[in-house]
Amino acid sequence: MKKRVFSGIQPSGNLHIGNYLGALKNWVASQENFDNVFCIVDLHAITVPQDPKILKQKIREIAGIYFAAGIDPKQSTVFVQSDVSAHAELAWILNCFTPMGWMGRMTQFKEKSEDKKENVSVGLFDYPVLMASDILLYDTDEVPVGEDQKQHVEITRDIAQRFNSIYGETFKLPLPVIPKAGARVMDLLEPTKKMSKSDDRPGRTLPLLASTDELRSAIMGAATDSQKEIRFDLDRPGVYNLLEIYEGVTGLDRKEIEAKFEGKGYGEFKKDLAEKVIEFLQPFQKRYRELTQNPDDIDTLLQEGAEKARPIAEKKLNEVKSKVGLG
Ligand code: AMP
Ligand code: TRP
């Protein structure tokens, strides 16, 4: 029996190289060795305001991106979270076993709610419980995500353990799997901040569907520093970030990359990086354009995915309901 992998991405904003290196790339690379479930988490997306038309488009866009990146619907179950109602139902039940204090400590919630106060929804606060439900419904062994999601996988384990300790062994405890390179790709202009898909100011991110001109100009304009050597040095966040992207898209090791640019200037390094990113994204973008010519095909794949996911999720939900004494 293969181990189960579960992961998801929210259908909002523009997916960028950080989402690719932090998440998608690793899903594809280990696809054959696992039983994979990949979700488009639209219920998570509505924890902040969304335009309904755009949300619908983004769900298809993310599906297209999953498939274009190499997720194979024969090896992986790909579906939309709101198509399987067990996710929302389990989230409600787990809400009743999750202390408020645990949620209040979540860094992502603190960051996202910092300057909003009155406008923060209960859903945003509860986001990690819904994520725990996603993961726990499928007896997940591993959750491949970027660094920012590690805390949410850890709280998932805590919620599972608490439930198990009250009702007996019910949920498997999942492990977060964080990649070596690209776990936290930074904003190109402010490299002390995470590259964010909801930030659409030009020059800050490298969107997976961007034109070559856009990619080139963002890389050429990326922040560096006043030093000269091109080395992996965490104290120099701009250069470190660009080198990490180089490592992620070429697969070369760090020593090789440093040797390649020894004695060279930032201009030359950035030019080469831009070419490597473009070379890397072009075949992906071509597949994306081909796949999205027939949006109905994507819808069919998503429906088939939901049909595969639903019985697994419902079985676990029924077990939970019966243990709790519901229904
Ligand atoms: P999100 O963009 O929040 O829906 O995240 C989707 C996936 O991409 C999650 O696994 C994140 O951890 C990962 N991710 C998001 N932003 C970055 C980033 N800047 N660097 C690396 N991984 C990221
Ligand atoms: N919270 C994740 C993010 O923003 C997305 C997500 C939702 C997820 N449910 C999940 C990731 C389950 C892994 C497993 O990136």
Brief digest:
By secondary structure, this protein is mainly alpha-helical. The chain has helices at residues 17-29, 42-45, 52-68, 86-95, 100-104, 107-113, 122-136, 150-167, 212-220, 237-250, 254-260, 266-291, 295-324, and strands spanning 3-9, 34-40, 76-80, 142-144, 175-177.
Report on the structure:
The chain has 327 residues and is mostly helical. The chain has two domains: 4-178 and 295-324, Rossmann fold, CATH 3.40.50; 212-289, Tyrosyl-Transfer RNA Synthetase (Orthogonal Bundle), CATH 1.10.240. 54% of the residues lie in helices and 8% in strands. It has 13 helices and five strands. The strands form two sheets. A three-stranded parallel sheet has the order 1-2-3. The protein has a two-stranded parallel sheet with strand order 4-5. The structure holds adenosine monophosphate and tryptophan. Tryptophan binds at residues 6-10, 41, 44, 131, 134-135, 143, 145, 149, 152.
Total discrete domains: 2
Characterize the overall form.
globular
CATH superfamily of the largest domain: HUPs
Strand order of the largest sheet: 1-2-3
- Round the mean pLDDT to the nearest integer and report it: 95
Order of helices and strands: EHEHHEHHHHEHEHHHHH
Quick one: CATH class of the largest domain?
Alpha Beta
Number of helices: 13
Detail the poorly predicted runs.
none
Number of DSSP strand runs? 5
Stated plainly, the CATH topology of the largest domain is called Rossmann fold
Estimate percent helicity.
40-55%
CATH architecture classification name of the largest domain: 3-Layer(aba) Sandwich
Secondary structure class reads mainly alpha
Radius of gyration: 21 Å
List the ligand species.
Answer: adenosine monophosphate, tryptophan
Major beta sheet, specifics? Answer: 3 strands, parallel
The portion of residues forming beta strands comes to: 5-15%
Termini separation (Å)? 33 Å
